[in-house]
Amino acid sequence: MYYTKMLIPTIRETPQEAEAISHKLMLKAGLVRRLASGIYIFLPLGYKALRNIEKIIREEMENKGALELFMSALIPKELLEESGRWDVFGPEMFRLKNREDREFCLGPTHEESFTVTARNEIKSVKNLPLTLFQIQTKFRDELRPRFGIIRCREFMMKDAYSFDKDETGLDKSYNDMHEAYCNIFKRCGLDVVIADADSGAMGGSGSQEFMVLNDIGEDQIASCTSCGYAANLEKAEIIENETFSSDSLLSDKELIYTPNVRTIDELCGFMGCSADGFAKTLVLIADSVPVMAVVRGDRELSLKKLAAILKCKDLVMADEDLIKNLTKAEVGFASPVGMNCKVILDNEIKHMVNFVTGANKTDYHYKNVNLKDFNKYDFSDIRVITPDDSCPRCGCGIKISNAVEVGHIFKLGDEYSKALDCMYTDEAGERKPMIMGCYGIGLGRTLAAVIEQYNDEKGIIWPIEIAPYKAYILPTNVTDPIIYEMSVRMHDELVSKGIDCILDNRDERPGVKFNDADLLGIPLRITVGRNAKDGMVEFKRRDEKEVSVMTYSQALDKILSVVK
Ligand SMILES: [Zn+2]
How close is the Cα of 238 to the center of ligand 1, in Å? Predict the structure, then answer.
């Protein structure tokens, strides 16, 4: 393409509205524009890069035998009522009515559409297994759209669903998708960490997130510095630390008057102890049953782990009234001492002696509390991992990082097939629910994550497969016929070989062109200048500093070998 025929509206100054590097660069290089909060337009260069990601995804999905189809973005209310999710989705779902007052939503996700398609179209066990996918726009009314296309209200997503006759089949389909995802992100040049999103306590790998470590990420993961283990922060397993001595002399508990002491910091000051000498009791409601969860004073309770252990659907913090009712004290003085409700102690509490807890009495705490002071309790791993913990697989150090989720694979089992009657008839004539898996990739997010990973102070540095154009031909002077003709010849030859390239035919100073070439991040640059008369050009990779002078045909061969 000739630069002057293209739409590349680059911006010189750094856009104020953008926080993330990828967002800044996408605006500066003219890849996207914001239409409204969380709503973006892909301009030609940005769309071409997005299409390249789409192509990689499509190829890798098809390599695994997945079939592409295309669902509607508009979903009738009745379909989500069938699964019971019309009311479950909160204000994130865009709802609308047509002229006949029928209700619809703009699909935030497509589980129901895929499940009813399988229900209606798959008749026999002979059609299983089957994996279907689409690349489709999704809509979510995010409360706080952020970081350009990383968290926005309308976005492109690849979603796939597998249908199997049993769990063994699902394992195979899931592993295929796992492999496809590894290939996809590798081809995108992305360093991904695959994090267990399933609780270790539940014991399986029923769900994994493909995460890109980045400070702008709104998720947190714990990863091992040595063996590659990674997990969602709230789900990461904790191995018990045995360094505490349990043979210490157990004292008898003592009631202490602690007026106006509410927070752990205040309590530590008052008692002259540190937070790790305190057992913090949280009161929760699990499917309408009160539960006390106890973690060390300096630890954080993981609601996800607790919910998995309690096997409850709904787990929330108890309100003030309930706490008062249960403990007969103001909020802030709860303790398992003398209680007969369900009590779950974090494993770490096992190794604590003579610790401090509330006293279930306003303005009082106990000191020198020990397990013998609790009526009944169970131990479990219910706290959030910290950098002080060690890797549950190999025992090495744990690092906590922010990360952006670019993909998620998930074993759904029969939840949707049962709800939506998606059954098949087996060899014995028995009707059984199909066993499902679901697999998503955010395309825009992947694109932004690639830019986050590949950039420098001058601009984007595209990995070759995603680059919207592979080569940038830069004549230093378009009014010099030798220079210009050689540039056009290179452009035409590359195009004839199927290589997308840009010919910067603008009558601009070379400095302006060099800056734009660097900002756009096209991987290979050919500068045609004064020594064109000797048949020579300059070749430079965007990701390297060196410039090599070579003949026209050497440069051509070089481009072909890098791109192919
Ligand atoms: Zn490890």
Answer: 12
